[in-house]
TrEMBL record:
This is VPS35 endosomal protein-sorting factor-like. Belongs to the VPS35L family. Residues 55-65 have a biased composition (Low complexity). It comes from the Eukaryota. Its main location: other. One of its GO terms (biological process) is endocytic recycling. It comes from Tetraodon nigroviridis. PANTHER family: ESOPHAGEAL CANCER ASSOCIATED PROTEIN, VPS35 ENDOSOMAL PROTEIN-SORTING FACTOR-LIKE.
Length: 968
């Protein structure tokens, strides 16, 4: 390579002429011609009939525009759908031979459709019942320990012998071959029930049908035990899960017997059932009829109620009244109530249209209420130390379910009938509560005043009135009562709620009525409700046990109050937030408030009420950050705070805006992304100040801009992220330049150069260590572009910032085998070439750059050329070093081609030595064939085009000396 030595490195540039030369020629396009931005229209004219391939009827015509290759490949079809369709066509038999489980699942889905999505299924109530009805008392359970008689029968045994053996096994169960497990906790009890459920499935899978029946019978017998009466509703849920499993297994078995050779239709009749299936089904009912005890016989027969469809068209319709009558033989009213609930449940699944049976069960249940005051029940309650109100709540799940079934799509007249029954019944609180929860909220809301009157007349010894008002409040949260009655309703309800002594009972009811208050009233009424809640929940720190209810109250308020000026002007809102003392809960509440605020606060605000309240909420989130806080949590909180900062605007009161940023910096000093946003905000503020003032009050404006620069200069060093510091130093320096604050700009840029040695060789990006080299090169290129408009300081010599940057690059410890330093040198050459022009490519208004300061002084140009000579020498030395290693041939070629491009674009190739250097670089870049041929060809074409210009004819000689080479 030739050694570069020239008096002037760069050629003279006329940027305006070059811009005009590069502009494309305007070409008129007729409306009918294809345009790349016009949507592609494809017209498909395929025949609807299956024509032979290649026939005219199956051809397709399209517009003259080429079709989208992606669309044509898929032909508008999702590739996964195409795959599924192909699989189905290849294996048609597979789709037809669905498993029994799939058939059963589809069949159950079909049956559930009869009820509709507005009917809340039992599965949605299980979890609530299990969580509500708990106990710390010890429980017991009887496990079957029967013998294995009959398992060794030979395959040729007579049918009568098998039947007799199975009956003996059932007798064996009832003769006491059982083992009682005592002192079980509630969780142990649930685990034992689950073990029985698994045993049932395993016995069924092993074709041990009698053993499966024994398990179901003994589980059903558990429902006669009320020794731990508070747990009975949960025991009912666990045991009926096993009964449901048994019912499905029996039904699916008989269904399978009818599905050969073709599956039984969903709407099958008894005529579609073969004799074998009928006989098997009848056999199951005979087995169940042989159960001696009433309760297990009743429950197990109800579990397979659906199987009656295989035997008779009217079988279910006849069975339901019979089973309803059987329940009257159960002596314990609580046990009888849940038996009725189970019968209504299976009845709704198989015959939801049979409402008469539901009504009969309900009226029978009402008739048993008089037993509650009887000696037997009262003695039981005394022994177990259970009060009557607590005992009555045990009926709630059963009554609620039965009433839900009755009220499903029932006319409003039925509600009136139920209300009359509540009035005539002596102890109607329990029934009234269930009626309000079961019927449609619209019906209840329309008669809210009547319900309040009935609640007042209820006996307090039954259910507490606050529970009744809670049920009424749930309905009124979903439907609106008549407008003239709303204030009266709220006053009457709150008179009762505020007198509740137990903080837990109080908040459970008050939280429900918060929504009604927010829905229909103003901040005055809501503020009164919040004050009452604070009054009840503050003593003895009762709020610590009521965080879920308090959170729910906050969410309901946020749902209805989107005017945050109104919301935060409530005197008791922030004191209400102060009750959230637990860190995790307090932060979650503040997060919820901020999410709603950012979603609904569309316009920027300067409202002091909003700013003070939101600043307090954001400070609460910020102060929760500590050394153990996860990075994702920090990032999430920072985004919410940043959203708030962006919503704050004081208009043209720039000093107030800066004061807010100063306060925010002190408040959010632990969240670095927030500090970064504040610096951006201040820089934007400085730019807006200059644009708005437009020269007016220049001294005051300059002082304010300097204050903004001081804010950034003080804040940036506190950032831990090195590239955040570098980029913000550069950005702040650019803002200072734009505002003619040269000393501030100089300080920012020098600070950025001084930080460069601190850049580590690897940084963490999204939790992974990555090389910092590419990020550093991007920053340096941006920095170099800024230096074009930065005038030299009179006390620091020519190009002192450029030299300082290059010295830092020279001393920086780059990665081994890295070309980054040479890439920086190559990038610096275009900057130096631009600095040597008489007129710069870009400049800052009202600020003199070096083009004005030096005015093309020969000494200044000489300094630039010397620096260019030094840089090119360094680059050539590096290329020579790479040439000694065959493994570095590709790197050498890439760097040589990059330098060639710089010389071509910015160098004065009329200089023979510079021209020869460019040719040598071209040859070096192609020497080993690593240079992309397409790029080389395009470069030659560009040079030929430039050579045709009047002042670029010297390139003709250069292009003739450039030869394409390929690797041999």
């Amino acid at each position: 390579s030739a050694v570069f030595c020239a008096t002037r490195f760069s050629r003279g540039r006329n940027y305006e002429a070059e811009l005009q030369e590069c502009r494309p020629e305007a070409v008129l396009v007729e409306s009918g011609e294809y345009h790349p931005l016009k949507p592609i229209m494809v017209t498909d004219t395929k025949s609807r009939h299956g024509a032979r391939k290649g026939s005219a009827s199956s051809s397709s015509s399209s517009s003259s525009a080429p079709t989208d290759p992606l669309s044509s490949m898929l032909d508008g079809t999702d590739p996964l759908s195409m795959f599924a369709a192909a699989s189905a066509s290849e294996a048609p038999g597979l789709a037809q031979s669905a498993s029994t489980g799939d058939l059963g699942r589809r069949r159950r889905d079909k049956e559930e459709e009869l009820l509709g999505p507005d009917f809340e299924p039992w599965s949605c109530k299980r979890g609530e019942i299990l969580a509500r009805f708990t106990t710390t008392e010890k429980l017991s359970i009887n496990l079957f320990m029967g013998s294995d008689r009959g398992k060794a029968l030979s395959p040729g045994s007579a049918v009568s012998e098998k039947v007799r053996t199975r009956l003996e096994e059932l007798d064996d169960l009832e003769e006491g071959s059982q083992r009682e497990l005592l002192n079980l906790s509630q969780q142990d009890y649930a685990n034992r029930i689950e073990e029985l459920n698994q045993s049932l499935k395993e016995a069924w899978a092993a074709d041990q049908k009698v053993k499966a029946l024994k398990i179901v019978i003994q589980c059903a017998k558990l429902l006669s035990d009320t020794s731990v009466i508070q747990f009975y509703p949960s025991k009912f849920v666990l045991v009926t899960d096993i009964l449901d499993t048994f019912g499905r297994l029996v039904f699916d078995r008989i269904w399978t017997m009818c599905s050969d050779p073709r599956p039984l239709p969903d709407g099958f009749t008894v005529d579609d059932v073969n004799d074998t299936a009928k006989e098997t089904c009848l056999n199951w009912f005979f087995k169940i009829a042989s159960i001696r005890e009433l309760l297990p016989r009743l429950y197990v027969e109800a579990a397979i109620l659906k199987c009656n469809r295989f035997l008779s068209k009217t079988g279910i319709q006849e069975m339901l009244p019979r089973l309803t009558a059987m329940i009257r033989g159960i002596g314990d009213p609580l046990v009888a109530a849940y038996a009725r609930a189970y019968l209504c449940r299976v009845g709704m699944e198989v015959a939801p249209q049979l409402k008469d049976n539901l009504n009969r069960n309900f009226f029978d249940l009402l008739g048993t209420f008089r037993q509650i005051s009887g000696e037997s029940v009262q003695n039981q309650l005394v022994v177990q130390r259970v009060e009557v109100p607590e005992y009555l709540t045990l009926y709630s799940p059963a009554i609620n379910w039965i009433l839900q079934c009755i009220a499903y799509r029932a006319p409003e007249s039925l509600l009136l009938e139920m209300m009359e029954r509540c009035k005539t019944l002596g102890n109607s609180a329990l029934l009234l509560n269930s009626v309000m929860r079961a019927f449609r909220p619209e019906f209840v809301a329309a008669r809210a005043t009547d319900f309040i009157g009935m609640i007042k007349d209820c006996d307090e010894a039954g259910l507490p009135k606050h529970l009744l008002f809670g049920s009424l409040g749930r309905s009124l949260a979903c439907a609106d009562p008549p407008e003239p009655e709303r204030l009266t309703i709220l006053n009457e309800a709150w008179k009762v709620v505020t007198k509740v002594r137990s903080p837990q009972d109080y908040i459970n009811c008050a939280e429900i009525w918060v929504e009604f208050t927010c829905r229909h009233f103003t901040k005055r009424e809501v503020n009164t409700v919040l004050a009452d809640i604070i009054k009840h929940m503050t003593p003895d720190r009762a709020f610590e046990d009521a965080y879920p209810q308090l959170q729910s109250a906050i969410w309901k308020i946020l749902e209805y109050f989107h005017n945050f000026s109104v919301l935060f002007s409530m005197e008791r809102f922030l004191p209400f937030l102060d009750m959230f003392q637990k860190d995790s809960v307090r932060v979650e509440v503040c997060r919820s408030i901020m999410e709603v605020f950012l979603k609904n606060q569309v316009e920027p605000t300067r409202d002091p009420v909003i700013l003070n309240a939101v600043l307090h909420i954001c400070k609460t989130m910020h102060d929760s950050v500590n050394a153990l806080t996860l990075e994702d949590e920090k990032r999430s909180l920072a985004l919410l705070i940043i959203g708030f900062i962006r919503m704050v605007s004081f208009g043209r009161d720039f000093e107030q805006q800066l004061s807010f940023c100063v306060e925010a910096r002190a408040t959010f000093c632990n969240l670095e992304p927030v500090l970064v946003q504040l610096i951006h905000t201040v820089n934007q503020l400085a730019m807006e100040t200059r644009m708005v003032m437009k020269g007016n009050h220049s001294r005051k404006t300059a002082a304010f801009v300097r204050a903004c620069a001081a804010y950034s200069f003080i804040t940036i060093p506190s950032l831990s992220n090195i590239f955040s510091r570098l980029n913000l130093y550069l950005l702040s320096g650019q803002v200072a330049l734009a505002n003619q604050c040269l000393s501030q700009a100089d300080a920012f840029l020098k600070a950025a150069v001084s930080v460069l040695p601190e850049v580590p060789r690897s940084i963490s990006v999204e939790g992974k260590l990555r090389s910092s080299e590419s990020y550093l090169l991007d920053f340096i290129n941006n920095f170099l572009a800024t230096l074009l408009v930065v005038p030299d300081h009179p006390e620091h010599g020519v190009l002192y910032l450029v030299r300082g940057l290059l010295n830092m690059v020279q001393d920086y410890t780059w990665e081994d085998n890295s070309d980054a330093k040479v890439r920086v040198y190559t990038s610096a050459l275009p900057l130096l070439a631009a600095m040597s022009q008489e007129t710069y490519l870009y400049s800052i208004p009202k600020m003199d750059s070096n083009e004005t300061l030096y005015g093309g002084d020969p000494k200044f140009i000489s300094e630039i050329n010397k620096l260019c000579e030094t840089l090119i020498g360094q680059i050539l030395d590096h290329l020579k070093a790479l040439g000694r290693d065959e493994q570095s041939a590709r790197r050498q070629g890439v760097l040589a081609f990059a330098l060639f491009g710089v010389l071509l674009a910015h160098g004065d190739l009329r200089n023979n030595k510079l021209s020869q250097l460019s040719v040598n670089l071209w040859n070096l870049s192609h020497k080993h064939g690593y240079c992309e041929t397409r790029m080389s060809v395009r470069t030659l074409e560009c040079i030929k085009h430039q050579a045709q210009q009047h002042d670029m004819s010297h390139l003709t000689d250069v292009v003739q000396r450039l030869v394409l080479q390929t690797r041999t």
